[in-house]
Amino acid sequence: MFSGRNHYLGLDIGASGPKALVLRRHGKGVDIAAAEKLDIAEEGILTEKELYQSVRDWLQSRGWAKLPLVLGTPQCLSTTLVSDFPAASPSALSDMVKHEARQLASLSDEAFVHDYQPLPAGCGRQQPVLIGLCREQTLRERLRLCADVGLRHDGLAMTGLAMVSAYCWCHPEAAHAPQPVLLLDLGKDNSTAVVLAGGQPLFIGSLLFNAERFQQALATRHGASKYDEKPSPERVNLLDEAPNSALLVAARQLETEIHNAVEHWRNQEQAEMASALIEQVYVCGGGSLLGGLDAWLADRLESRVEVFGPRVGGVRRPEFVVALGLALQAAGEAELSLSLLPADIAWRLQRERRWPWLAAALALVVVVLGALEASWWQRSSRDLAECRVRIEQLSQCGNYINGIEQLQRRRRQLEAELLPLVITGNQARRATAAIAQLGRSCADDDWFIYLADEASYHAKRESGSKLPAQRAVAPPAPAGGMFGATAEPALSDRAAKAEFPALLSVFDLPCNHAYIAAGYTPLQAEQPFEPIRNLVRKLNAGQEFRGVDQLSEQDRMGREDIFRPWMAFFKKFPKEEFKSFSFRLPLAAPDVRPLPAVAEEVGP
């Protein structure tokens, strides 16, 4: 008996008969535990309801009815699209996908169900997202059939994407190859073509060809109706057929459909991939069992053709490819995992899956609450004793508070006296480091013509001064001396402030938080701002600045004197064009940490 904890079922209810494949988890991977096919001809099934009842009874007889199951829905009933979206948060991406899905369904008044999955970048797309869309009424009819006969399931998935997941599992080394490959699922009633490149299903479409044509051709060649005789396609060699045989006519129809599908993909694909050659063709499904079909297609398509599928009992079974992909999605191992369950049904199934965990959580809560209640009384007595000890310790600590406050005031006074030395002494190192960082960030043809602290830049801009630009590098010294204060900065009481109203407190010393830099770079006609962006990225990548950005137009007004000498210089080079820039360079770390404000003591 298989266990639902480590076994997963994929069910492909195709026209030739339902196919089921069970995967078994071992360690971090999965392998095939069983694969079987139900012969609907032997069962005498006539209606769709009888088919689902037979599938239910069949799964129950095999002990698979309670396994996690994903049911396949024909690819021809669904629509898929790979769209390139801008980088966004998951919630924003979900909103954009909903809008795209509404655009796809805008021509119809019916409700649609959609799901999406981000894909790896490549094939000319930066943020590709795979979107799946299907009519809700079609899905609910299929789900109603399952509910009527009691056939449980955990999800609905498209057969085309299941084929891609199975291919990636069978050929992991080629799953993300950059060259496009063509995957063909030749089913009895319909066929699916997928163009896969770089892990992206660039095109998923249905073919007008079905494998039933091969069976009809075989029956016609043997002189019998398709209902009277079931010739084995494996015994045929398509390469030995006469030029006008019915089998070759059907094969040529398949070839035409393949060319039409590839041409349709190229017409809608981006230019980067539209001209790429198909690296290889992989064929699966019941139609791929026709003997010599791969060799005939290889000759006609001028490409390598290979029949692929899972190995069951040491034999390759291409008809179980879709069932394998569905089982991989049930196990959470599918490369592409889109679920087409309507929102209400998906929520109900999610609640059913979570119910055992909820019951276990409730039981655990009851046990934990009982244990907490029992231990609370013991902790309360210990806490009460600890509180008494802490009260005694706090009463002793109160005696030391006044002494600590006096020491803190003395420490602040000493720090304030050192503050002018730190700020003034650090200016030269800051300026040197800023110049070095600008030099490392410049390209060969970039150059800076101006560097000044922010206060000097704005002071000259507001006053309209015409001082030379090179003097703006030195920050303006505060009035009263080199360090901006009188010879006795300790005079901070009220009497001193009243007697010397122009006295500058050490806490009011200007501290530079950013530099202003300007320069030129050669103009690139195609991307005029790209060199400036590169400069910003390099400056932000260094250790001196954080948040480097261009100055706003308002902040640049009034400082035309910086660029005026260079405008005359550039007139000597009429064939050369340059673009100016002005940056604000915030320092990564301030010279000193700001001191917290202290309330003045109020006298008695």
- End-to-end separation: 91 Å
| Morphology call | flat
* Main sheet: strand order: 3-2-1-4-8
CATH superfamily membership of the domain at 7-352: ATPase, nucleotide binding domain
Number of helices: 17
Radius of gyration, Cα only, in angstroms? 39 Å
Class computed from helices, strands and strand pairing? alpha+beta
- What oligomeric assembly is this protein in? single chain
Helix content: 40-55%
Please give the largest β-sheet.
5 strands, mixed
Estimate what percentage of residues fall within beta strands. 15-25%
Uncertain parts: 224-228, 465-494
Q: What is the CATH architecture assignment of the domain at 7-352?
A: 2-Layer Sandwich
Q: Give me the count of strands.
A: 19
CATH topology of the domain at 7-352: Nucleotidyltransferase, domain 5
The top-level CATH class of the domain at 7-352 is Alpha Beta
Average pLDDT metric:
83
